[in-house]
Each structure stands twice: as C-alpha cells, then as structure tokens.
Amino acid sequence: MPDISRSEADRRKVFDLIKDIGIALLTTHGADGRLHSRPLAASQKHFDGKLWFITQEGSPKISELLADPNVLVAYSDPKSQRYVSISGTAEIRVDPAKVREIWDANQRLWFPKGPDEDDIRLICVTVESAEYWDRPTMPLIYAYHYIKTRLTGRPADLIGENKVVYF
C-alpha cells in the first residue's frame, strides 16, 4: 500500500516529478461510457494545484469534459523511473493571457498563427489527488536486483517511493 500524505512538501514533489515531462495523457469519459486517453503537450511552468493544457475549440475532448469533468492525467518518464497519476476535475476556459503564459513554441505545430488564434481553448484541471512512483535509476541498483532475481527466482522489489497525495 502506498503512503498517504496531505503535506505541502509532497504536493511540491508531485510538481517536481512532472515538470520536465513534455507529454501527459488526459483520460476522459466518452459519450459511449468508454474511457478515452490522448496525449497533450504538458507546458506547466509552475504549479498551484491546477494543470493547464492548450486545445482547439471543437475538439471531441471538450464535449466529453463538458458532459463529465472527472479526468485522470498520467505522466510517465521511464528513463528516470518517474510515474505520476493525477485525478481531478476539468473545465474549459478562454483566457488569452494564460495561453501566452504557458505557450511553448512546439504548440505552433497545432496553432501555426501562434498563441493569439481565436480557436484556442484551455483545459484547466483542478488536482484532487495524485499517486506517484519514484524509483531509483542507478544502473548498479538494477543490475543488483536483476542478478538477485535470477539467483533467487523471486521478483525484484523496485517500487521505490510510492505515495498518494491529496490536495
């Protein structure tokens, strides 16, 4: 079982774990009741309990969020063994100043005219809880556990730190 926390330090750790991960998976509920996940550029520059994503007006995810705002946002960085799953409530906003604040040059792939395009919408996710797994990444640790598993026939215990953080 993961540890459970409500501490400000653990809330900051959640941001530290996700701030350098460039893509997040946003999971919504479709009209058919099925879950739908899609990648979104993660351009979080600071964290105040809200996650921000840029999308386009008319995107299917907007109608899904309007019908059911409960979402899951997942971040994964296998190279550094950091994984974060965030539950929250999403809303659609029009806020040109916020778009400019979180704008990243890579967004031009979807919005060639830049951050002032009329059809840009923001998805604001108010974080309710997060669960993270932060594992050791040193090659020697993995080599040790690999050899130990091969010799003992028992699975490795590489969970590292696993915590649920409430906001």
Tell me about this structure:
This protein is an alpha+beta fold and 167 residues long. 24% of the residues lie in helices and 39% in strands. It is built from 4 helices and 8 strands, in the order E-H-E-E-E-H-E-E-H-E-H-E. It has helices at 8-18, 60-67, 96-102, 139-152, and strands spanning 3-5, 23-29, 35-41, 50-56, 70-77, 82-93, 120-134, 161-166. Strands 1, 2, 3, 4, 5, 6, 7 and 8 form an 8-stranded mixed beta sheet that branches. It is elongated and about 60 Å long.
Task: List descriptors.
alpha+beta, eight-stranded mixed beta sheet
Q: Cα-atom Rg, whole angstroms?
A: 18 Å
Counting helices, strands and paired strands, the structural category is: alpha+beta
**What is the residue-averaged pLDDT?**
91
Described by the principal axes of the CA atoms, the overall outline is elongated
State the separation between the terminal residues, measured CA to CA: 19 Å
- Poorly predicted regions are none
Beta-strand percentage range:
35-45%
Number of helices: 4
DSSP summary, beta strand count: 8
> Topology as H/E string?
EHEEEHEEHEHE
In short:
This protein has 167 residues and is α+β, with helices and mostly antiparallel strands.
Topology overview:
Blueprint lengths: L2 E3 L2 H11 L4 E7 L5 E7 L8 E7 L3 H8 L2 E8 L4 E12 L2 H7 L17 E15 L4 H14 L8 E6 L1
Parallel strand pairs: 1-8
Antiparallel strand pairs: 2-3, 2-5, 4-7, 5-6, 6-7, 7-8
